[in-house]
Amino acid sequence: DQQVKQNSPSLSVQEGRISILNCDYTNSMFDYFLWYKKYPAEGPTFLISISSIKDKNEDGRFTVFLNKSAKHLSLHIVPSQPGDSAVYFCAASANSGAGSYQLTFGKGTKLSVIP
Amino acid sequence: DTGVSQDPRHKITKRGQNVTFRCDPISEHNRLYWYRQTLGQGPEFLTYFQNEAQLEKSRLLSDRFSAERPKGSFSTLEIQRTEQGDSAMYLCASSRWSPGELFFGEGSRLTVL
Fold this sequence. Notes:
Chain A is mainly beta.
């Protein structure tokens, strides 16, 4: 049972345009969400996170939006650059206030930014 | 390099053999995690250490798997009597706090023939 779903296995975007990666979750106990980026032959690297008390978090070209009622979050990359081409994983954690430590990951979306 | 270090990077073994992976976390991180990733999937949680204490194990971690973190520094993940289904990338990560940002190593890829 996939508790974190990334329904688009791949996405292609022109350089300079906006990339929007989507993620849905089913566990209503999730209250902390993260995005990781992964290049081939490397481990995932942290990109940006958001707590359930917020609906938006920005860091440079990256913005994460959280819609709790829809159990949906999205990552916006503006403007997209060729170096952003990677696999992006959405991850979620439950009960962060109780010191939760387990992240549940989606299957990932492969982003290709075309020059 | 002060990142998370994993060894070996690649391991090919025959079914039934035992294998051991080592992880050296970022030195100031007291939290250490093992994840497993198979083709087309995201990382799946295996186990978590806070200092030397193993606080949680996933149901994915069968009795053939054992993880240790002596003295709260490096960690080892041993798989006994390997099966072909154990073929995967084994990722180690560390962090300062949970469930905050995890710093992942490059992974140890296991192939069981």
